[in-house]
Amino acid sequence: GQQLNQSPQSMFIQEGEDVSMNCTSSSIFNTWLWYKQDPGEGPVLLIALYKAGELTSNGRLTAQFGITRKDSFLNISASIPSDVGIYFCAGLPGANSKLTFGKGITLSVRP
Amino acid sequence: DAGITQSPRHKVTETGTPVTLRCHQTENHRYMYWYRQDPGHGLRLIHYSYGVKDTDKGEVSDGYSVSRSKTEDFLLTLESATSSQTSVYFCAISDLLETQYFGPGTRLLVL
Questions:
Q1: pLDDT higher than threshold 90 for residue A93
Q2: Which of A37, A51, A110, B69 lies 20 to 30 Å (CA to CA) from residue A10?
Q3: Of the candidates A76, A57, A6, the residue with the CA atom closest to the CA atom of residue B42
Q4: Residue A67, exposed/middle/buried by CB under 10 A (0-12, 13-18, 19+)?
Q5: What is the per-residue pLDDT across A55-68, written as a single tens digit (0 to 9) for each?
Q6: Is the pLDDT of residue A2 over 80?
Q7: Between chains, do B90 and A43 touch, taking CB under 8 Å as contact?
Q8: Which residue in B41, B97, B105 is closest to A42 by CB distance?
Q9: A100, A101, A103: best mutation site toward chain B, by most B Cβ within 10 Å?
Q10: Distance from A49 to chain B by nearest Cα, in Å?
Q11: For residue range A27-44, what is the model confidence (pLDDT) as tens digits?
């Protein structure tokens, strides 16, 4: 089945730095979603992308739906300590299909 | 935040006992899902529902059953709990097949 690849598993950055994450697949997806999960909580939707090439922002977060429809990118600018958590990408291949999730990237922010 | 609650939030049980987890929503969303989250595996779909009394299996459905007698409630039952079912269980809801919103999770420990 479809797989979404997120790497590396962990990222460590300094407060104030920008960070980029990507999510790739060998299959085409029609919808890309980015979630963040805080420790002990459920994933929270950050950004949803529905069209190839789409660039969407949510505060300091910006995500893009790749032109090939096989990847998506999330950028966090001017990181702060509360950005710590696990960032998941998820994709929907098409109508009447189910979401596929990446395994997530754990982000640590050093003050 | 989407109105999703899960109960119990934590449970410890013994191998061989039946366990039922409850997901309750106040959003009147059509679709409901049960996932388990384990280190190294990310989120894996157990079962989902596309309407009252309409359910289907996900990728890791063995040992689990579900029921949905009302739009707002989706129950996950472990018929005879095993240690391999120790996990964090998340319920999610969606109005369309795209964007899913997650509950806070249930931590289950099977001894």
A1: no
A2: A51
A3: A6
A4: exposed
A5: 999 999 999 999 99
A6: no
A7: yes
A8: B105
A9: A101
A10: 10
A11: 999 999 999 999 889 999
